[in-house]
Amino acid sequence: MAQDSYTEFVNTGVGKKITKALGLPQPAKLRRYTPDAPLIPGPVVLLGASEASDILARRLLGWGLDVRRHIGPKEKVAAVVALFDTAATPAQLSETVLAVGGLLKQLKASARVITVFRDPAHTEDPAVRAARKGVEGLTRSLAHEMRAGSTANGIVLHEELDIASPSVAGALRFLLSGRSAFVSGQFITVDSVNGALPEDWAAPLAGQVAVVTGAARGIGAAIARTLHRDGARVIAVDIPAAGEQLAAVANEVAGTALQLDITDDDAGEQILSHADQYYGRLDIVVHNAGITRDKLLANMDSARWDSVIAVNIESQLRMNRALLKSDLFNRPEGTVGPRIVSLASTSGIAGNRGQSNYAASKAGVIGMVSASSAQLQARHGTINAVAPGFIETEMTAKMPFATREVARRLNSLNQGGRPEDVAETIAYLASPAAAGTSGLTLRVCGQNLVGA
Predict the structure, then answer these.
(1) Residue 1 — very low, low, confident or very high, per pLDDT cuts 50/70/90?
(2) Among 12, 104, 133, 278, which residue's beta carbon has the most beta carbons within 10 A?
């Protein structure tokens, strides 16, 4: 993984002075999650006068946070949570929006601003939908204005959803925490009351069994480590050619290794058999394995196109069919069901020159996740996707220097993400606390400047 020397330089005294004088990007060192760190290091200001704000205040106080309704003009703020759940016209946004604006100059480094509002799609009233879409627009715009590693994101609630639901708490905690360091300008939709909050927030996956494909290196290895840290028992899957690295990762996370070509017709059955033999259960499947075979479409051949489609999307469709037929991957009613998390990409959202095959496969993942949500919800489970932007990996380290530097700066945080940023988001979506969210594609891209 190439070192981001520019970000290191900017965060020295002389580097900050020189780059600021020249008007150059100012990437900050991001606040990332460590188990022994506080959830949020400082006061949380809660804005909004609805009943929902009282419910969230009690939740935040229950986590031991310093919750304020007002704050002094010279005090530093670690987070702002702004509720717009009762807004019925765009004019009604003004008071809370301007209150948020008045606090921006008081934000600490790596602060969080979180908006909470009802889903625009769930109303036919033009004024109400206009107000809710307005919150969406202002949140995206605000994320572009954040400085010093701070982020802005939103939580979107189903029309009738009780804000006291566990998955609302799960989304709020994720966005406040260092787990969401490279997530900005994004929205977590909570559609149902499903979910369960962990007894121990440091081990939210305790007792769960998780499969991670493509686990031998890079993002896959980071996912395996993060799920293990959060209490899961991990089955690390990769191709036989990566057997030595796969075994090392499996040993590191005290899990088991399964050498497997995921394009095999019976790959899903092999995973289920392994999980049954070693653990007697399977709770989480992370479809991380993927390949690139870049070429301009005018020069594309069937080998490049077909191999990318086969690995990146057809294999997931086939494995999911096997999983959903299995009793091992189902749970009785009243319990948190199975969870699937797939790796998409910002290339599947915005496209990328020379990646028509890769973009098609990753857009296919987004479509699959959306269409499969009902099937998983019928089994009390969820399926979601994570779409990384520019992530510092062995692959991106091989890019030409100038290309890599430009790619690093093309987001609101002015830097590349790390494999653990993707892994943290996957661990959140795989947790019981996110069981009210399904069919979502959540970008981990630092608010990349291309795409929705």
Answers:
(1) low
(2) 104
Judgement on whether residues 120 and 170 belong to the same structural domain of the protein: yes
CA dihedral 397, 398, 402, 403 (to 10 degrees): -90
Q: Are 414 and 27 in contact (CB under 8 A)?
A: yes
To the query of whether residue 33 is one of the catalytic residues in this protein, the response is no
List 117's β-bridge partners, or say none.
Answer: 156
pLDDT at res. 269 = 97
In this structure, of 4-18, 182-196, 263-277, the range with the lowest mean pLDDT score is 4-18
253: domain CATH number? 3.40.50.720
Please tell me the predicted confidence (pLDDT) of residue 49.
81
Question: Average pLDDT in the 11-28 region?
Answer: 81
pLDDT score at 297 = 87
- Please state, rounded to an integer, the average pLDDT across all residues of the chain: 93
Query: How distant is the alpha carbon of residue 187 from its chain centre?
Result: 10
Whether 441 and 385 have beta carbons less than 8 Å apart is answered as: yes
SS (H, E, C) 59-119: HHHHCCCCEECCCCCCCCEEEEEEECCCCCCHHHHHHHHHHHHHHHHHEEEEEEEEEEEEC
Rg value, the chain, Cα: 22
Residue 156 near residue 188 (C-beta atoms within 8 A): yes
Structure tokens at 445: 């891209």
pTM of the model: 0.94
Q: Which of 6, 33, 358, 428 is catalytic?
A: 358
For residue 448, what are the β-bridge partners?
411
Distances in Å between the Cα of 222 and the Cα atoms of 137, 182, 214, 233 are 33, 15, 11, 14
* CA 216 to the chain's CA centroid: 21
Q: What are 258-310's pLDDT values in tens digits? A: 999 999 999 999 999 999 999 999 999 999 998 888 889 899 899 999 999 99
Q: Are residues 138 and 177 in the same domain?
A: yes
The top-scoring range by mean pLDDT among 49-53, 131-135, 196-200 is 131-135
Query: Which of 275, 270, 272 has the alpha carbon at shortest distance from 259?
Result: 270
Q: What is the pLDDT of residue 452?
A: 45
Q: Note whether 195 and 435 are within 8 A (CB).
A: yes
Q: Please tell me the total count of domains within the chain.
A: 3
Closest to 421 (Cα-Cα) out of 383, 391, 384: 391
Question: In terms of Cα–Cα distance, which of 437, 315, 448 is closest to 384?
Answer: 437
Domain containing 9 equals 1-30
Is 230 among the domain residues?
A: yes
214 Rama sector, left if φ>0, alpha if ψ -120 to 50, beta otherwise: left
439 touches 202 (CB < 8 A)? no
Residues 25, 35 within the same domain? no
